[in-house]
Sequence to fold (457 residues):
Amino acid sequence: MAKITFIQPDGSAQVVTAEPGLTVMEAAKMADVPGIEAECGGACACATCHVYVDADWREKTGKPSDMEEDMLDFAFDVREESRLSCQVKVTAELDGLVLRVPAKQF
Amino acid sequence: MTVLERPDGAQPEPIETDVVIIGAGPCGLFAVFELGLLDLKCHVVDILGKPGGQCSELYPEKPIYDVPALPIVTGQELTDRLLEQIKPFNPVFHFGERIDGLARQTDGRFLLTTDGGQQFLANVVVIAAGGGSFTPKRPPLQGIEAFEGTSVFYSVRRMDDFRGKDVLIVGGGDSALDWTLNLQPVVKSLTLLHRRDEFRGAPHSVNEMRRLVEEGRVRLMIGQVTALHGEGSKLAAATVKTAIGQETIGVETMLPFFGLTMKLGPVADWGLNLNENLIPVDTEKFETSEKGIFAIGDINTYPGKLKLILSGFHEAALMAQAAQKIVYPDKKVVFQYTTSSSSLQKKLGVK
Ligand SMILES: Cc1cc2nc3c(=O)[nH]c(=O)nc-3n(C[C@H](O)[C@H](O)[C@H](O)COP(=O)(O)OP(=O)(O)OC[C@H]3O[C@@H](n4cnc5c(N)ncnc54)[C@H](O)[C@@H]3O)c2cc1C
Ligand code: FES
Fold:
């Protein structure tokens, strides 16, 4: 199991216990994390599962693929640390991961 | 199959038909088949420019594994096969149009009106609206609503509206590029803003855009809009965050292209009972709280509902039986198989 912390724009934090193999989006949806909409159900086709990866974790989560970069064009306020959470797989390595939820997904 | 173009401004005569299907997703398409077997003629309206709903818009290349008898089929393949299957019934498609109005007439029929002003008179309405109309995403910029329709547009209806204007186009896909190329000759100035110096659009459009930038006819900015400024509904400027800081540029018109999202939209305005943005129906006929208006596919709800394509297909078949009784009240309904009924095979054009 990996613990993932989601920080909301108002600063409140929610720790989610995620099973390796799921995507971070799926783990967030199961725990009803606000602000992760995931309209397309993880098809990398909607960009409404956008998150910011905490600076300390960017190396471990890695860079978006080309397909994900293309879909990030449809997100708002995209930054260096932007990822689509449906494209990040939960692994034991990511235990302790810290993510920020954007103010609005659209 | 006939495709009718959006009528430009003109108020055409209402189209009279047995059935209007709202939504050309998989369930709306299959409804054409089931209704067609029972001799009901359909017009199908969708705000998207193409058939297939979620399957073709959200996941055309992804595999679906649970459509009976098709162990694996992509969203686009499923759409293409449905179109082939319903071809004998010659449905009339109206793409790029949204049904806004739905009201019962004194003669019992329904009057439907699109955002383009097209009207329909139908005995039966089938709402196959899925998760709602696909609607352009609105960038969450403070105060943007006030500018919409006057200074901020999500599509181009008439190029002339942009003539002589300072225009800002935001995005990096085909819509952003196509409108950059098309509008550049008519506008006063054109700025194309994208978050990175890479464009997903067709390579030839990208090259064409780069050429205009080189010639100084289009300004390309890499960055993102952070604020809009103006008086009332008139946009005057936009603040853009770039790699080196902030810049405020004077613009009168903005066209943001951030893709589509599903919004319930006008379905909520038709006086139907709703339950958390879904339309409750019975499980015999899939009829709504209004007689003659049916709801199938993702848009409906009933105990045990599963939002699956196969459920919508079943709903279409049962709905069609009830719809036939409305259009042909005196016709005796005979249950038939497509395998063995010569009359069904004649309709399908295989006999
Ligand atoms: C990524 C993804 C994967 C999926 N995988 C599967 C799967 O494996 N198996 C499965 O069974 N299902 C799957 N689904 C679900 C499946 O796609 C839906 O159940 C199906 O598309 C519903 O079909 P529909 O015809 O009811 O509605 P939709 O496909 O949602 O189509 C509705 C259409 O109606 C239009 N519309 C709405 N309101 C109006 C209006 N007022 N005027 C004009 N047009 C309007 C919309 O623009 C839209 O095109 C998946 C969905 C997604 C997003
Ligand atoms: S859920 Fe749609 S892109 Fe991630």
